[in-house]
Amino acid sequence: MKDFFPQAWRNQLARIDKRQIEDWGFGVIALDDAARVVLFNSAEERLSGLPRAEVIGKDFFVEVAPCTASRLFRGRYLQARAQGQLDEHFFYTFTYRIRPISAHVHMLHDRNQSPLVFLFLDRVVPLFEDLA
């Protein structure tokens, strides 16, 4: 699996902030301990079609992307919270409020560095786009 998140930042999660993530061309979402969206970069805004103002402070699994409230996605988030760390890559198809889009998700959490769970998203292919 292609690793699109800068390796140099893996041990600097506490330094990731709103300004920093605007330079990255892939989607970045950070969730707090209640799964509220704390960070949402402009690349994710463009790729998802969701305005940042509508997602910041909202429950990611209930109000932003209910299609992710599954064991496959939310289960990993809960695992990260329970264990205090997680570094996993997986593919997921987002289907809520937008056309189905397959994404490579890199979920990264290390409570020793930051209280946030980071989601780094790289769109793989918009499904059904070739059928239009």
Quickly describe the structure:
The chain has 132 residues and is α+β, with helices and mostly antiparallel strands. 23% of the residues lie in helices and 30% in strands.
Distance between the termini: 29 Å
CATH architectural grouping of one domain = 2-Layer Sandwich
CATH homology superfamily name of one domain: PAS domain
Mean pLDDT: 87
Roughly how much helix do the residues carry, as a percent range? 10-25%
Notes on the protein architecture:
The modification S-(4-hydroxycinnamyl)cysteine is found at residue 67. This is Photoactive yellow protein. A five-stranded antiparallel β-sheet has the order 2-1-5-4-3. It has helices at 18-21, 42-48, 52-55, 60-64, 74-83, and strands at residues 27-31, 37-40, 85-94, 101-110, 117-126. The protein is α+β, with helices and mostly antiparallel strands. The mean pLDDT is 87. The chain has a domain at 26-112: Beta-Lactamase (2-Layer Sandwich), CATH 3.30.450.20. A hairpin with a 6-residue loop joins strand 3 and strand 4 (101-110).
Topology:
Layout: H1 18-21, E1 27-31, E2 37-40, H2 42-48, H3 52-55, H4 60-64, H5 74-83, E3 85-94, E4 101-110, E5 117-126
Antiparallel strand pairs: 1-2, 1-5, 3-4, 4-5
Organism: Igneacidithiobacillus copahuensis
Pfam families: PAS
GO molecular function: photoreceptor activity
